[in-house]
Amino acid sequence: MLDGRDGTNRGSIENSQLSARNDLDAVRAWLSNYADTKTTFDNYRKEAERLLLWAVVQLGKPLSSLTHEDLLLFKSFLVDPQPASRWVSANGGKYPRGDERWRPFNGPLSPASQRQALIILNAMFTWLVSAGYLRGNPMALLRQRAKRSAPRVTRYLSVSLWDEVKEFVQQLPQETEAQRAYYARCRWLTTLFYLQGMRISEVAGGQMGSFFRRLGPDGRDQWWLETLGKGDKERIVPVSIELIQELRSYRTLHGLSALPVRSEDTPLIIPFKGKKRCLSRSAVHDAIKGVFSGAAMWLRSKGPEFADRADELERASAHWLRHTAGSHQADGGVDLRTIRDNLGHVSLNTTSLYLHTEEDERHRETVDRHRMNWNDKENA
Hints:
3 strands, three-stranded antiparallel sheet, cytoplasm, globular, about 375 residues, 14 helices, hpI Integrase, Chain A, mainly alpha, 2 domains, DNA polymerase, domain 1, about 5% strand, single chain
């Protein structure tokens, strides 16, 4: 049976720690571990779904009967899903599941996406074996080529190209109310991503009530932004007066008080219309891509000598801004430990919770050396 009830790799019912009696329910049990992290859940479900569909449709086998040889075929299939009419959506479009144009793939996967898919599926098989649902993990037999570590981050904007982006934003028209709202969003988005080095999920789910201030050792206010990062790890990021000024301008345009209160649930990115609720990750992604695409078109209008720079901007995404923030801080002389903590690459240990002098230094160094420097007189 294709539901896996009698799969050849099934563990004994007596030893299983799951109530699941078929492959789909077993996969759902695995996915339930990630239900509280939407991005991870969606990615893991997508990869499991692709394998389940491929096994049943292409091989006529349930997941629990797949062998090492089958997974070698699947590994090749990921490089170029064929037949494309069955597996790949037309024009690489993204369609809802109820749409007849929906397909499991939007196109061939990049090498990085192929590796990621295999890593996720290996984790799934390992878990199903640990739970006693499967006898063995056929994915563990695949030979994985060691990925060469990149000598440096390459997906970031140079200082000169970043200056072009800022110049593009500053020249956006502001004659109508709609134009002013669009200009304000572009300026706030680029400022927030760059100065805070945040992930797209952190910006999409963030609220203005997460800004807070406390007294520094000099008796002056220190502003911080609390955010929930990868793996549900909380961290606080130094906030400069420059960012607070931008926040004031952005909030005032939307008819809000100049500064947020601690319990305020206003989203970090305010929707143009409708309720004041957080935008989706895809909406924030599209907003940033819109800035980069607009800047690319603007660069091309300046002459053919700007074509290469425009091409690079069109490839850029929100995550490039995070890399840009980290790279510019490092190049500007900010201590790498400060950058590590600002970006949340490594969680703080328990002892650091008591090292307030270390945090004070991190705040001073970040806001002094990492600046937006808009070239206008708006905040003069």
